[in-house]
């Protein structure tokens, strides 16, 4: 089964995949070069490298009907574990460990039993670095 991206946790994984009904539409990865600007009196500011900030990944997508609600419930379950998750891209490359910073959902086209027919989501991940990392 082709995978677009995979969140690995404990004994399981959450797979983003078209065939699983869990595709994503967009991915934005933000990394920082570690450069800061230091103000100086009477002179131009000075550039100084103070170390990189943590990387961030934002995944957006739209899922449908009860399956989409189940998918979002699973992501909320992972978020509520308050533990870092492994992240693997669709090529099998390990991208390290990440924390789920925020999960936002928007439900549209609600039917009489409360099921949303269209669910848009934004998943924000932040790189996890523990105190032992260089």
UniProtKB/TrEMBL annotation:
<protein>
    <submittedName>
        <fullName>Phage tail protein</fullName>
    </submittedName>
</protein>
<dbReference type="InterPro" id="IPR009734">
    <property type="entry name" value="Myoviridae_GpU"/>
</dbReference>
<dbReference type="Pfam" id="PF06995">
    <property type="entry name" value="Phage_P2_GpU"/>
</dbReference>
């Amino acid at each position: 089964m082709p995978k677009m991206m995979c969140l690995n946790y404990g004994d399981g994984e959450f797979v983003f995949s078209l065939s699983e009904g869990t595709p994503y539409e967009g991915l934005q990865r933000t990394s920082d070069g570690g450069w800061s600007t230091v103000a100086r009196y009477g002179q131009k500011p000075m550039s100084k490298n103070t170390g990189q900030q943590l990387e961030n990944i934002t995944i957006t997508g739209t899922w449908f009907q009860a399956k989409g609600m189940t998918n979002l419930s699973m992501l909320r379950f992972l978020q509520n574990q308050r533990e870092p998750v492994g992240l693997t891209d669709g090529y099998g490359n390990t991208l390290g460990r990440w924390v789920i910073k925020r999960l936002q959902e928007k439900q549209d086209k609600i039917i009489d039993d409360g099921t949303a027919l269209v669910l848009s989501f934004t998943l924000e991940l932040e790189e996890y670095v523990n105190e032992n990392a260089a």
